Amino acid sequence: MKGRTVQAIVVNGVLALAALLTVAPLLWMVAASLMHSGEASTFPPPLLPSAPTLEHYRALIVQGGIARQFVNSLGLAIAATLLSTTFNTLAGYAFAKLHFTGRDKLFGLLIGALVIPGQVAMLPLFLMLKSMGLVNSYAGVLVPSLAGIFGIFLVRQYARGIPDELIEAARMDGAGEFRIFFSVVLPLLTPVLATLAVFAFLGSWNDFMWPLIVLTDGELHTLPVALASLSREHVQDSELMMAGAVITVLPVLALFLVLQRYYLRGLTMGGVKQ
Amino acid sequence: MKRNPVAWAFVLPALTVIGLFFVVPVLAGLALSLTDFDLYALASLDNLRFVGLDNYRQVLTRPLFWQALGNTAYFVVLGVPLSIVLSLGCAVLLQSKLARFKPLLRTALFAPVVTTLVAVAVVWRYLFHLKYGWINQLLGHVGIAPIDWLGDPNWAMPAIIVFAAWKNFGGNMIIFIAALQAVPEDLYEAARLDGANAWRQFWHVTLPMLGPTLLMVSILTIAGYFQLFAEPYVMTQGGPLQSTVSVLYLMYEEGFRWWNLGVASAVAFVLFAIIVVVTRGLMLFAQRKGAA
Q: Fewer Cβ close by (within 10 Å): the C or N end of chain A?
């Protein structure tokens, strides 16, 4: 029994250390954001602020206009979440439960297209949007995230578990396909809808390369793009940059903590290849 | 089966988006890579010429492309195993019956995955600081002299690898945990009866049972790591001495800084081809080993 106690101490000790090292950068980010200017760049580097201050948050909001970029990020993430969840759910359900010509072939093509990295499409997409006058607009940022193959795949996996008899019975009662979808299917899909929505929101909020390419105007920048350009100008202001990082990270971290059940399920569902 | 034409109304919105904003651009990109599309063509399409495979020839004979590919390969070859070992290690420990506070620890270990890459890259840039960074501070306690992580061409990529491993290992950890839960308990029971200790149980029961998951996780991680971009963009801007220029970073600079969209498209397709070859190769290798 003694060997087991030693083992338990080792297992828990290693895990606690790993967890501590993992969250340490995030904790330091918060601590440094509350330090006075220049305090983080003293030797030895302090762990905690000597006298916590919100001056950097104030500076970012009042002079930096970060509230505007926060609203940009939030609005885009909400729009991407609502639209992509709607489109992916409709398509995923159809691929799982409705029969139409070429369905399985089409789905196979979509899954095959998953190997294509999104960046391959970025240059021509930029030119297309430019000719449509959508470069440097919210619509331009939004357009590629309106629907996703992975999202369709998740819904299809989940929807396949719905018993056919349920849908058939509704059809016998004379309900139309959309009526069936909204009143019979959708309530059963709620858990996967939550998964899809969390993925879409975090994906949009955290996205960097595409908004960086499409948005040239600082007024329209999302938080990650604004933070990247801020960090190129203000390399020395570590405390200010940490405040910017906190403002960017905290909303998604909080959302994850509340909805982590759905997020983690999405990961493991995606892992189960059909 | 009865055909159901209404189904098209369900799939059409998503298919339109994917077709218009993904499939069409990918095909257009292939065409674009065969032209000399540049700043002049951006002004007027009259300046656009078909150049065949010339962009590919140009890319493949450019030293900077090979350096970028070498840097990216370095990132993949070191970063993927490091990330996967961390993921698997933490997953196994979290699955141990001896572990306490599992949900809390799992959340803590997973947290970096959901954070905004740009924001935490900014944070790590300060952690890697030569003089005031916590990493050198901690290394100092075990007698290691300060390293100029992001300023030394030999250390910049290793620093980015450490950062990427920290940011990403939690994702695969969750997948490994799910796979570990599916391993039948009686396999461990039988191994214990044969006198196998924890370490031998891991090698002879856990690892073989995780085979398919390990392969899938490796393929996805490799494909993802080849697309390195934001880390060098934020942390090093490709420097020092171009030691952290990745293939995608090169594509971005070529396309959106110098507006050589033809050449940049060729870079994108070369990267795509490399990803396909490497991941297919790994898959074939695994299949052959599985069959033998």
A: N
Query: For B100, which of A12, A101, A143 is closest by C-beta distance?
Result: A12
Q: Which secondary structure element, helix H or strand E, spans residue A76, and what is its range?
A: helix A66-97
**Exposed/middle/buried for residue B208 (C-beta within 10 Å: 0-12, 13-18, 19+):** exposed
Cross-strand bridge partners of residue B50:
B35
B290 within 8 A of B67, measured Cβ to Cβ: no
The B residues from 7 to 66 touching A (CB cutoff 8 Å) are: 7-11, 13-15, 17-18, 21-26, 28-29, 32
Q: Give the tokens for residue B162.
A: 């450490």
Domain ranges of chain B: 66-291
Does residue A7 surpass a pLDDT of 80? yes
Q: Please report, rounded to a whole number, the percentage of residues in chain A having pLDDT higher than 90.
A: 82
- Kindly state the DSSP code that residue A135 receives in the 8-state scheme: T
| A201 close to B (CB below 8 A) | no
B216 touches chain A (CB under 8 A): yes
As its CATH architecture, domain A63-271 has Orthogonal Bundle (1.10)
Q: What is the ipTM of this complex?
A: 0.93
User: Domain B66-291 maps to which CATH number in 1.10.3720.10, 3.30.450.40, 2.60.130.10, 2.60.200.40?
Assistant: 1.10.3720.10
Q: What is the mean pLDDT of chain A?
A: 92
A177 contacts on B by Cβ (under 8 Å): 4, 6-7, 9-10
Residue of B nearest to A255 (CA): B114
> What pLDDT, on the 0 to 100 scale, is given for residue A214?
96
Please indicate if any CB of chain B lies within 8 Å of the CB of A263.
Answer: yes
Please tell me the predicted confidence (pLDDT) of residue A273.
41
